[in-house]
Amino acid sequence: MKLKALLAGTTLALGGSMAMAEELVIWHDLGDNGINWFAEAGEAFKKMHPDVTVKSVSFPTDQWYGKSIAALNTNTAPDLLYNNYERVIRVVDQTGKVMDLSDVFAGMADTGFLSEADLNVARYDGNMIILPVQRVQMGFGARKSWLEAVGEDFPETWEDVQRVSAKFIAEDPDGNGKDDTYGLALEAANPRDLIHMLDLYTFGAGLRHTLIDGAGEIVIDEPKHKQVLVEFLKTFTDYGYVSPDTVTHSFPEMYQVIEGGRAGMFRVGDWNVKKWDGADVLNGDFLVGEWPQHFDDVDNAVVIGGMRGVAVPDNAPNKDMAIEFAKFLLSVEAQQASLNNVGAAVRGDFALDGLSERRLVFAQPAHNLNAYDFPESVHAFYPELEADFHRELLEVLVDPQDDWGAYVDALAERMRAKRDSLK
């Protein structure tokens, strides 16, 4: 009894800090950049909540899925989950145990920097499943020194890309005396490799939807969609702008081609720039802009390929404080740390001193933005439809067609039949 009384007295003497101390645990897949960001944000949060410690744990994406779903379903959830919107959707579908943050967001005063497109991406099945924290912007990049070597400016249209690609292949733009350069770096090994790249060229050209629209209609044989798809397929085949083994490339192999100086034009994510600015990678030798324009009457754009955000499990151990930290991630201080460590944010009303011109492209966008439509959030069958679409495209990449228009028309009919079988 004396020991118990002594401990109680000690707790009171410390202002109740022993009883109030909390550790918020957040799971993500951002690696060291994310760990550094959450550590910095956690220290800033401590100024308002001295007894709260933030601990972040990064998992490879596949492990993040499995651990998150299992933890929510067994009531062993962390306090917060952080990931791309579409990945949180999968957790919601598998568990039904992610909090609707609509009322939380409605009670926040400083949110005017979020667009309606940002908020639409945060909602699923009528609920706000994340607070949107980092736009995932993806632009089109080109090696600056290579452009100078072949006497070209940054390519703005598809015709520019074709002309520059041919020069990058033929004119030894890196000056190493070898025939080892390609116009473009792409990837094709898995559905989210090949279809992801097609998404970027499609949305980057200013179109909406890649394969299927919100009403469930297949769009690939609509005239403008068909033109982009045909040119995309010819890039691998008729034109030969990419390395012949690109059909086996996933993200790591595509990055090896880019960072190894073998391709002159490529996707640039906002998270890539800090590394590629480094002296041991591309040393800042690249420009970033909008994806190539295909149509005179449609504006091209940088693509918002996703939205990373914070979700709160219904069974979070420290739910009230988890909500407070989730809200804090939209503060100026946390957003500044997000930009500095991860390369992405949703607000820009803070110091941008010291950012390279390439990072400023994303931090202060002066270009058109076109947001991806996340068909899996509308059509539960979409992942299976996309897998079939990918299989069809891979087959034609190794067995090119003489009449690409007729091929796309026939493919659209097969996709409609597949859609009908999955409904």
TrEMBL record:
Pfam families: SBP_bac_1
Keywords (A to Z) from UniProt: Cell membrane, Lipoprotein, Membrane, Palmitate, Signal
Record has Signal as a keyword: yes
Keyword Cell membrane (UniProt): yes
InterPro entries reported in the protein's UniProt record: Bact_solute-bd_prot1, SBP
Signal peptide: 1-21
GO CC, one annotated term: periplasmic space
Compartment(s) where it occurs, according to its Swiss-Prot or TrEMBL record: Periplasm
Superkingdom of the organism of origin: Bacteria
Annotated PANTHER family: ARABINOSE-BINDING PROTEIN-RELATED, POLYGALACTURONAN_RHAMNOGALACTURONAN-BINDING PROTEIN YTCQ
Family listed: Belongs to the bacterial solute-binding protein 1 family.
Protein name in the entry: Sugar ABC transporter substrate-binding protein
Taxonomic source organism: Actibacterium mucosum KCTC 23349
